[in-house]
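Note to self: the last two entries modelled the partners one at a time, which told us nothing about the interface. This time every component goes in together.
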Amino acid sequence: MEMHDRKLKILYAIVKDYIETADAVGSRTLSKKYNLGISAATIRNEMADLEELGYLTQPYTSAGRIPSDRAYRAYVNYIMTLKKKVHTQDSELKSSFASKVGEIRELLHYSSRILAEITDYTTIALSPHIEECRFKNIQFVRISSEMILAIIVTDTGVVRKPVFKISGGIDSDILQKVSNLLNYKMVGLTLREVEQLLVQEIKHEASVLENIARKIVPELLKTLDKIEEYDLIFSGTTNIFNFPEYNDVVRAKAFLTMLEKKQAIYDLIAAVNNDGISISIGGENDFEEVKDCSLITATFKTDDSIVGWLTVIGPTRMEYSKVIRSIRQVSVFVNDLLKHKY
Amino acid sequence: MEMHDRKLKILYAIVKDYIETADAVGSRTLSKKYNLGISAATIRNEMADLEELGYLTQPYTSAGRIPSDRAYRAYVNYIMTLKKKVHTQDSELKSSFASKVGEIRELLHYSSRILAEITDYTTIALSPHIEECRFKNIQFVRISSEMILAIIVTDTGVVRKPVFKISGGIDSDILQKVSNLLNYKMVGLTLREVEQLLVQEIKHEASVLENIARKIVPELLKTLDKIEEYDLIFSGTTNIFNFPEYNDVVRAKAFLTMLEKKQAIYDLIAAVNNDGISISIGGENDFEEVKDCSLITATFKTDDSIVGWLTVIGPTRMEYSKVIRSIRQVSVFVNDLLKHKY
DNA sequence: TTTAGCACTCAACGTGTGAGAGTGCTAACA
DNA sequence: TGTTAGCACTCTCACACGTTGAGTGCTAAA
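The predicted structure of the combined assembly is written out below.
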């Protein structure tokens, strides 16, 4: 049994209708609503075929058909071959972005909010974990005799501020000098590289400052190692209540609880390294909790390093067409800003 | 009609039972469950009185009674006169706190998570808005030719990182020197005081650095002024689903949407300036959306300035006794850390 | 003043029924 | 041989209806 053109037409119509209505699609409705030029009975036969091929399922004996993940995948692949054009002419949106200067995290935050608003889905923005980043600037602030706050700016504009302890305490002036020294040595390196540097180089020298640095850096690295905080920014989390499939408190709770598993979500999204838009549908994800969700992710880069991701998450019955259009639109503005301002 | 001792006993029993069961309390149940030494009929009479006095309401003619805000208030006042003792002997909790060194924001975050876990309610932690804080340290980082990232540490340990634009650009070395100068001038002042200083003092001097500072500071202040971001940390947001009154999707959504109105919540909580625990019940709040919620808030201070608040929010039918005990416990640990480490 | 008794009210629950949408199968048709 | 009309059957959903049970208010007796 192959996929005739007619089968595909029917399949796409079913997917489209189900996305729109969230109701199982029947042959009669289909033949009335979309004029496919064939009767309900014929459609029924084709539907039986499509079910056998794994594109459709039936919730109970005499109900209509519901698209499977495979059906959504076929549908998405299909619409991706169509209209590639992006409307970047939305001048209101464009200027609202242009006026948003700020830290990259803020840009991500803003994009995520806008995207949640225009799509009516939940969005997630995130930036790479500090382990993946290069130091751009480091600064120490004494907050008490033995406690030091380090402020680290990475090349991707992310700021982290670990606090660590230095036994015996340290003078403010010295701390300032050490921070200058470390800036000189560490800038441009990743966390791992700093660790190596520490072993190789600093051990051999022995100025007063470097002795102190030798005390501070391991503490700092140890603290950074412990940071398991993933910087996820959610927007439109309550949008999930708009979908009938989440009209059930149990499912709504499951969705919101899933969002709290930050590491899993980070792993899920940060695996994407793609210049365009990446789409994963239901069971295509390994993460059990999102098996009835789809994720559409855009990756943002400057030169070659990733500075963040922006994801739309929603039921597999997602308005792919609209969401893809919106995320492309937002991506254009974000990339523009990244190119010109950073 | 006065509040006899017996009336109070009945009232407290009703409140207690309703908190436990979330079901309207009837006279029969009450007389069976709590042995008050009087019959259901007598209780009925007293209940009618209590309703007239505004302590009880009836959802429909032949249902049991439900406590009003006034009843909860009476009950809370009553339990506050009882057991003031706090168990600070929970050594596991104590040591888990002690091991948490870090920025104040992190301490608040951690406390909020712990409190949500032990109470099973939603908690909110927040720190004062930057306008209220004094500068402790300021540092500039160039992120592109015209864009500068300022990193501000306040006396309460909060870090903010506004990005602003400086037309014409600026050299890294100069920027470093300006930052040293500003540190010297601004430390210990509030945002408003810096503004005044700028007008009064810097105008008269005219060194190269100060000319530059004169260019930078207004930009910085303008950017800070625009920060309307309130730093609220939520934990246990999905706990709301555990309560039968939020088994309705509409109400659950309303609650979660309410949490997104950050400024309103900030205003609500930051109004509390209290050494102990502050409790507000239902309509006692001006904020319409929380009229069927209660908030229990602890304020944290170092010396005299407030460094943060920790709030438990839940239905007015809250386990006040348990929550008050828990928040007191956590407060002791947090205050301990604040006293000894900051 | 307290209590027992009684008639009344109302939500909640289970049952039954009919409407409606949909299916699969069969037989006729182009 | 593929397509269509017709038909019997299935299953959910919505609605009406009666029953149950908890609770009330009132009255009269202790």
